[in-house]
Amino acid sequence: LLNERMVKSMKYLTFAVQCYNSQDYLERCVESLLPGGDDVEILLINDGSSDRTGEIIDAYAEKYPHIVRAVHKENGGHGSGVNKGMELAKGIYYKVVDSDDWLEEKAYKKLLSTIKHHVWEEDAKHPLPDLYVCNYVYNHLDEGITKSMGYRNVFPEEQLCGWNDIGHFHPSQYLIMHALIYRTAVLRECGVVLPEHTFYVDNIFAYQPLPYVKHIFYMDIDLYQYYLGREDQSVNEKVLMSRIDQQIKVTQIVARCVDLRQVKEQYPKLATYMCRNISIMMAISSIHLLLIGDEEALEKRRKLWNGIKEQDAHLYYRLSYTTLSGWTNLPGKIGGKLTVGGYRLAKKIYQFQ
């Protein structure tokens, strides 16, 4: 039994908020996390900002000393902030929240209440979830447009399940960092470390720990509000094209960080999903190299695919002939035009940037 002092000091959930020149929107993010009160810790990680971000963080830490911790570090990029958060986290669970995003309060309170219930009920018959999955919302706040992304077809609602119990993901549906709340011990066990000074590392965070997850709990609530619309946003098409080398780097890391043949022996459905995840990343890299369109970009596309072929011929075959990415590796100019045309249509339908 937990004594009163332990209960009062327990942190059920750690939020890591990586902040870089976030003065214009940081308060919206932090204010959405504060309703968790003393049950949570909020790590505000200042990644070498040059604006008022550090000052704002210090003010929150002074006002809420039992909830907020200000962490100041040299600039290392988003991955560096996530790594620092994992190093410092005291919470049983760990959630990354980008400083321009926020949580919906009602869904947040329901999640926290559920986590507390599971912690208090834990025993041999009621193991803790290793992963909570919640819906996230594409929020074009400035345009008043939202689109909820859920997983009702994949996971049973509010029931503990494993990877062999899941359904099938839709073609446009996959697990992203914004939907995931990992048990902190699972993250440390899997040894995930994100590269510094690199964008798109959230793909690694949402991929590498999955085989270490034994118990999953899905809640059909629109928790995470994923803000879209800033011109400098990393998912903006023009920005992504300018950072294509970083996208390629992350794609290559994801493709080699897990042995899918080993995963398939224990969790065949998870192995199928993870292969599809690589396929999506290969498609994104290939499409944006085609959009750039010069000879250097086309050569990078060839090297990316040849690298997969040399590393794992079986994976290359699956990516080329049984998954979405195969349509982004069509030969010749006509193949490239078909790929770009399909991408434009998907972008219009699904309202991503």
Summarize this structure as a short list of keywords or feature phrases.
353 residues, alpha/beta, ten-stranded mixed sheet, globular, disordered C terminus
Explain what this protein looks like in three dimensions.
With 353 residues, this protein is α/β, with parallel strands linked by helices. 45% of the residues lie in helices and 17% in strands. The protein contains 14 helices and ten strands. It has helices at 4-9, 26-33, 53-63, 78-88, 105-121, 184-190, 202-205, 237-242, 244-256, 260-266, 268-292, 295-311, 313-321, 332-350, and strands at residues 13-19, 40-47, 68-73, 93-96, 102-103, 131-140, 145-149, 160-161, 180-183, 216-227. Strands 1, 2, 3, 4, 5, 6, 7, 8, 9 and 10 form a ten-stranded mixed beta sheet that branches. Helix 9 (244-256) packs antiparallel against helix 11 (268-292), helix 10 runs antiparallel to helix 11 and helix 11 packs antiparallel against helix 12 (295-311). The radius of gyration is 20 Å and the shape is globular.
In short:
This protein is of the alpha/beta class and 353 residues long.
Number of strands: 10
Average pLDDT confidence is 89
Largest β sheet strand count, sense and barrel closure? 10 strands, mixed
Query: What percent strand?
Result: 15-25%
The best one-word shape is: globular
Approximately how much helix is present in the residues? 40-55%
Computed Rg: 20 Å
- Count, helices: 14
Instruction: Write the H/E string, N to C.
Output: HEHEHEHEEHEEEEHHEHHHHHHH
Distance between the termini: 50 Å
Secondary structure class reads: alpha/beta
Stretches where pLDDT is under 50 for at least 5 consecutive residues are 348-353
